[in-house]
Design goal:
four-stranded antiparallel β-sheet
Length: 94
């Protein structure tokens, strides 16, 4: 699996495990992602995939390197897709 495929799978898992926000983004903590059995089976290097997604500006979180235990409560925010953002803006205007 290449990096782009892993990032897409990560986005799907964040949507599955996270909570949708008013702006169309999704939030999940690192601990929830790290301790999820399905994620453990998909991602050999979850932290590396998170860093790749952050570098591509799909998501945000505080810090550079997340460590299990120490950073379990760090919130990871998956930015809304352009289509979701446009829908949210349209609803807000009405």
């Amino acid at each position: 699996m290449n990096v782009e495929e892993e990032v897409e799978k990560l986005k799907e898992e964040i949507k599955r495990l996270g909570k949708v926000q008013d702006d169309g983004s999704y939030k999940v903590t690192f601990g929830v992602l790290f301790n999820d059995d399905r994620c453990a089976n998909i991602f050999e290097a979850l932290v590396g995939t998170l860093r790749a997604a952050k570098k591509r500006k799909f998501l945000t979180y505080d810090g550079e390197l997340l460590l299990q235990g120490v950073h379990d409560n760090v919130e990871i925010t998956l930015k809304p897709s352009p289509a979701a953002a446009a829908t949210t803006e349209a609803v807000a205007k009405n």
